[in-house]
Amino acid sequence: MSPDIDEARHPFLKGLSKHRGAPPTVVVIFGASGDLTARKLVPAIFNLGVDNLLPGEFHLIGFGRKPIADEDFRVMMDEAIAEHSRRPLNKEIWERVRQNMSYHSGGYDESAAFDSLAEKINQIEKDLGRDMQRMFYISTPPSVFEPIIENLGSSGMAQAHVHTKLASKVVIEKPFGRDLESARELNKVINGVFEEPQVYRIDHYLGKETVQDLLVQRFSNSIFEPLWNREYIDCVQITVAESLGVGSRGGYYDTSGALRDMIQNHTMQLVALTAMEPPVSLDPESIRDEKVKVIKAIQPLKLDVDGGDVVRARYTNGLVKGEPVKGYAEEQGIPEDSSTETYAAMRLAINNWRWQGVPFYIRSGKRMARRASEIAIQFKRPPGILFSEGDKFNVAANTMVISIQPDEGVTIVMNSKIPGLETRVRNL
User: Fold this and answer.
1) Backbone dihedral angles phi then psi of residue 86, each to the nearest 5 degrees
2) Same domain, 371 and 356
3) What residue numbers does the annotated binding site for substrate cover?
4) Domain boundary pick from 185, 202, 219
5) What is the pLDDT of residues 299-349, one digit of tens each?
6) Which of 58, 178, 257, 347 places its Cα 20 to 30 Å from the Cα of 415?
7) Res. 192 pLDDT band, cuts 50 70 90
8) Kind and range of the H or E element at 292?
9) What residues contact residue 139 under an 8 Å CB cut-off, 6+ apart?
10) Which residues form the Glucose-6-phosphate dehydrogenase C-terminal domain (predicted)?
11) 6 domain residue, yes or no
12) Residue 325 domain-assigned (yes or no)
């Protein structure tokens, strides 16, 4: 909590962040009635409160097309935390956020709705008696990114307190454009409204603990880094598999597919973190620069039907745990003429000194046999000199498996002798 906030005037602030100097903040979530807000965003805000990392004066405004009363929105978020938070609901902590939470309805292309939102935030600042940092989180379909950004500019909210520590921020979820041309156009719109330090293009996959731990595993353990190259590694396999189908998200999913929904963002982030060189520091720009170098070194994909680098497929009807499930074409909201894939796999070649000749196999899909996100580093097999005769020597390649979800951790597969008088080998 900032030292100049009167605790007697705001007794509910007691116990919130005191050590980080976080400024008073109002967060506006566009698309607040959507799935991402309920499953990820609001539970994350609650957990920041549990960790004492929210600013002492914090307001949350949900924005969406659907009219919802303030109390109804609060109840929806209560239920979201109860169902999706990694920690049980702490009513005392949540109440501090809840009482400063409201809902604002309007169209994303309606300037009047943004003008009234600006008035609402201005009134919050007036009641508080000081300026607030404004954070706009865009959690909507990509088709309305541009009108939201343009209206944030025309309403004056994008420029609020600019060139100060309280300058407005905008957070943009993936997918960032549909292709290179649309991504460039979206950047043009953003840079016409916000200055670059105000903009956060994010991939929420990077918030996972195991993903953040990947740099630590690589660069703080001397037993790994000397082996992390083409001399010792045979291949790298990165899998992001989901056991569920598209469910009620068919209308959205059919516009993206596995390639746009998972491969070009989440999976490529894992490729970059696995293959990058050590950054000069842990600041965001240094890490980004090393990621960019790796991505630039990826060679163009061969798209031949036979012998190409890409496979696309989709799930059909069948049984899951003994129960019948629909195929993708029969799911709700899927057009009859859809050719969207639900599974995609690629073979990447990184043409640099460290990785030349080491294939990176990446894959992602829905309705897979099990839910799993993992990075498997397969090392080269030892020379078959001592343990090569017959089938009693089951010498396998050593593998390091970094599990991201659902079970986090690192597993190393090694060869070991089976107990007994005879020398027999197994891997475990």
Assistant:
1) -75, -10
2) yes
3) 204, 208, 242, 261, 366
4) 202
5) 999 988 888 999 999 999 988 888 888 899 988 889 989 999 999 999 999
6) 347
7) very high
8) helix 284-297
9) 29, 30, 31, 32, 34, 36, 37, 41, 173
10) 216-426
11) no
12) yes
